[in-house]
Design a protein that fits this description.
Layout lengths: L4 E6 L6 H8 L7 E7 L5 H5 L2 E4 L6 H15 L3 E3 L4 H5 L2 H6 L3 E2 L4 H8 L1 H10 L8 E3 L2 H13 L4 E5 L9 E4 L15 E3 H10 L6 E5 L2 E11 L5 E10 L2 E5 L2 H13 L4 E10 L2 E8 L16 H9 L16 E4 L13 E2 L24 E4 L1
Parallel strand pairs: 1-2, 1-4, 2-3, 4-5, 8-9
Antiparallel strand pairs: 3-17, 6-10, 7-8, 7-10, 11-12, 11-14, 12-13, 14-15, 16-18
Helix pairs in contact: 1-11, 8-9
């Protein structure tokens, strides 16, 4: 009988409870044991894992690598999916290999390129992938100059941090004066240019923002699985247009995504996002990690997390073509368990190297999923 696979996810997104579900319900019917660590004791990934521990706070990247190596050796981790301190971790891949752990993460060079959006835009433009016009700004005067230049070309303008993920810090610029209109309804992503300029002039340190046109929908996120030989095994686009979601295999999106994944060493799982600038797709962002919505590919008959784990273990899954494209859908929220208060560290009965392996398909432990997809 094949031994079970031990997988560790560190300080990951709540949506990755579905990543964990798919690992357990893998088509190889192989037992999977999942370890999770997080700084938030109420993260649902801790409750969904077989073993869980709180993560220490305040560690430097170097100290975190030592912590991670100890976790892998002590827990017998076969595959580590790092999100927090990914750059520092992949720089020590050989040390993880020495303790028997494969990293499900790209090369150090790829992580370095795509940590900074300005560096990323320069790099992908050099290989022929279209990018939006952008300006890097650090001061109020640079912001004003960039906004005026882009507005003169007919663009609506936005800005975002040069480094970051998940849309944190994204804002759209407006010249409308602040009024009660902006206090009605829900908070808006629009910010008044004069207020931003005033805040920058008062700031004690410069910012590091990219100023660029507001790109239009649809947004297409291409999930890629790429081998260490730089060949893409899987590429499927997930489309988003307002509430409506869907899937695409259109080469307008997939061809540039493959070019980026293969050309820059985006090994294992990555997510490459595009939006429209006028009538053509341009790069929006590149994530060197599994996307939070990766599990949605199950609607196309694809278990991408398990294929990635197999690839990390040296079991090449070959080229994966979705057997069908799922119907359009939307995403709704739902309840998901968290651990009882003050219950960390914890370990489920049956978990651990000296226990009988758990079944590959566990009994459900929740009433309804968070982020469940429903057809339209």
């Amino acid at each position: 009988m094949l031994s079970r696979v031990r997988v560790w996810l560190n300080r990951t997104y709540a949506e990755n409870v579905f990543f964990m579900d798919q690992l357990r319900r893998n088509p190889s019917d192989r037992a999977v044991e999942i370890h999770a660590t997080h700084g938030d004791p109420d993260s649902p990934v801790l409750a969904a894992a077989d073993t869980a521990e709180p993560e220490p706070e305040g560690l430097s990247p170097a100290a975190y690598v030592e912590y991670a190596l100890d976790q892998c050796a002590r827990r017998g981790i076969d595959v580590f999916v790092p999100r927090l301190h990914q750059a520092a971790i992949v720089a020590h891949r050989a040390e993880f290999t020495a303790v028997g752990t494969a990293l499900l993460a790209p090369t150090p060079e790829a992580v370095a390129v795509f940590e900074d959006k300005a560096t990323a835009y320069e790099a992908v433009r050099s290989v022929g992938v279209p990018v939006p016009p952008w300006r890097r700004v650090r001061t109020a005067d640079e912001l004003l100059s960039a906004v005026e230049e882009l507005e003169a070309s007919g663009h609506r303008v936005c800005f975002k941090p040069a480094a970051g993920a998940g849309g944190v810090g994204f804002r759209m610029i407006t010249r409308d004066p602040f009024s009660l209109t902006h206090l009605n309804g829900f908070p808006s992503p629009y910010v008044q240019l004069d207020l931003v300029v005033e805040a920058l002039r008062r700031a004690e340190e410069p910012v590091d923002w990219l100023v660029m046109p507001r790109l239009e929908q649809p947004e297409v996120s291409v999930d890629c699985l790429t081998g260490p030989d730089n060949r893409v095994r899987l590429a499927v686009g997930r489309t988003k247009n307002g509430r409506r979601r869907g899937f695409t295999l259109d080469e307008r999106w997939l061809a540039p995504a493959r070019l980026i994944a293969e050309g820059f060493g985006l090994h294992h799982l990555s997510n490459i996002q595009f939006r429209m600038l006028g009538d053509r797709p341009v790069l929006l962002d590149v994530n060197t990690r599994p996307a939070g919505g990766l599990h949605q590919l199950s609607l196309c008959g694809v278990n991408a997390p398990w294929a990635a784990v197999r690839l990390a273990l040296g079991e090449d899954p070959g080229v994966i073509e979705p057997p069908f494209l799922g119907q359009d859908y939307t995403v709704v929220s739902g309840p998901r368990p968290v651990l009882p208060a003050a219950s960390l560290p914890r370990q489920r009965a049956g978990a651990g190297a000296d226990q009988v392996p758990r079944p590959a398909v566990p009994e459900p432990v929740r009433a309804a999923p968070a982020g469940e997809v429903l057809p339209l």
